[in-house]
Structures are given as C-alpha cells and as structure tokens.
Amino acid sequence: MKPADQSRTSTVTQVNGTLCNGENGQRLKKNDKIAEIAHHFGRIMEVLGLDLDDPSLKDTPARVAKMFVNEAFVGLDETQFPEVSFFDNTYNFDEMVVVNDISLYSYCEHHFVPFFGKVNVAYFPNKKVIGLSKINRIVDFIGRKPQVQEKLTREIAETLSVLLDTEHVAVYVEANHLCVASRGIKDHNSHTKTGSYLGKFKNEWTKKEFVSTFQ
Ligand SMILES: Nc1nc2c(ncn2[C@@H]2O[C@H](COP(=O)(O)OP(=O)(O)OP(=O)(O)O)[C@@H](O)[C@H]2O)c(=O)[nH]1
Ligand SMILES: [Zn+2]
C-alpha cells in the first residue's frame, strides 16, 4: 500500500500516461524533466565559466539531471513510494516497537546542499505490523527531496501513522547540514535535532522510554 492510496496525500497528476507531481506546474514526463534540467544545468555551468566541451564535463549536465530526478530528489515523485508489506498483528503485540539509527540523506531546500544523519522511529502497533526494512525504505524515500528538517521529521511521523493505522508514532532526527558546515558560518561541529511525537508519545514517560533507546 502507498500513502497516495490514502486521502491524506495526493498532489499527483496523470499526464500522457505518466504520473508526475503537479503541484508546481511541473507536468512533465520523467525523460522530459531530465532533458529540461540538463539544459538549465548546462547553462549554469556555462555562466560559471566552465567548458562544456571538456571531455570530463560534457556529460555533467545530463548526469546531474538524472541524479536529481532518479536519485537525490526521487522523493518528489509519489509514484516511486516504496512497496510496503504488512502483517496482521495476530499476536496482539501492543508494546513499543523501536527502530534506531536509520540512515538519512536529504537536501536543504534553502541552499540545495545535503543534510544527513540518523533517524529513530517508534510506534505502538494497532492491527497491522510493518516489515522492519520498510521503515528504513520509507525514511529513505521521504528524505530524497529538498526540504527543511522540521518538515521531514513531521512527514515521516504522519506517513507512518497513516500506513500503520495508529496515532502512536514518534520520530527523532539528528542531522548535519552542509549549508551550516561547509559554507556560511562554517560550523562543522553543530548538528540539529528534531522530534515529532504523536498520540501516546506526547506523554513524558513514553517519550522518555523512546528517547532512552538512542541517548
Ligand atoms: N529551520 C531550518 N533552517 C534551515 C534548515 N536548513 C537550512 N536552514 C537555514 O535556512 C536559513 C536561510 O537563511 P538566509 O539568511 O536566507 O540564507 P543565508 O544568507 O545563506 O544564511 P547563512 O546560512 O546564515 O549564510 C539559514 O539560517 C540556514 O541555516 C532546516 O532544515 N531547518
Ligand atoms: Zn541550507
């Protein structure tokens, strides 16, 4: 099941048989998106004074465009949301399930440079239990688009809440932002921590039990 199946999310539009994100007027097929981005990225390189005839640089515009659409920003295309397998909670497990240290790669929407780190997720199962690796896949997918850490944290929590049909979800993200570390203030020691606590996790004791698994 994909969250696009749920009423909560749907910015997807069908264009010429291909599903694209329609929110920003980007009603293009995937290959047209790649061609368009390659054209504009090539222009950026030219404006910067780079030689597009250099054998090492000539394929860079197309390479970057493919990377943006298929990898770095694939999370903008909801049709690529990972397939998720569920299992009936026949054993009636109603304790906290925690997954720690999920790898995260994302992009700052202000500077278009990466931020990356770790995500911790917990939930109380309702009628469904999710395959463990699927939580990592969902975090990876939601990470792969330009955004701020606060929005990312909340989106992971809300998506899991819908998919798992439980209001009891917690997400904690710790990340290093290259826009802070490699430019601007150039502070490579600081990192940013954000949490989203839904349902029972608003209770201080429950939140503490979750936080104690990684701090
Ligand atoms: N709240 C939040 N801010 C972010 C995130 N990623 C980047 N930023 C901040 O977005 C802000 C953009 O500020 P601006 O003043 O417009 O940009 P800037 O002149 O490049 O700012 P400096 O980074 O301070 O050089 C910066 O303070 C960034 O640190 C994020 O995930 N969450
Ligand atoms: Zn930034």
TrEMBL record:
Residues 38-213 form the GTP cyclohydrolase I domain. GO terms for cellular component: cytoplasm. One of its GO terms (molecular function) is GTP binding. InterPro entries: GTP-CH-I_C/QueF (IPR043133), GTP-CH-I_N (IPR043134), GTP_CycHdrlase_I (IPR001474), GTP_CycHdrlase_I_CS (IPR018234), GTP_CycHdrlase_I_dom (IPR020602). It holds the Pfam family GTP_cyclohydroI. SUPFAM superfamilies: Tetrahydrobiopterin biosynthesis enzymes-like (SSF55620). Keywords: GTP-binding, Hydrolase, Metal-binding, Nucleotide-binding, One-carbon metabolism, Zinc. It catalyses: GTP + H2O = 7,8-dihydroneopterin 3'-triphosphate + formate + H(+). Zn(2+) binds at C108, H111, C179. Pathway: Cofactor biosynthesis; 7,8-dihydroneopterin triphosphate biosynthesis; 7,8-dihydroneopterin triphosphate from GTP: step 1/1. GO terms for biological process: one-carbon metabolic process; tetrahydrobiopterin biosynthetic process; tetrahydrofolate biosynthetic process. PANTHER family: GTP CYCLOHYDROLASE 1, GTP CYCLOHYDROLASE I. Homopolymer. Belongs to the GTP cyclohydrolase I family. This is GTP cyclohydrolase 1.
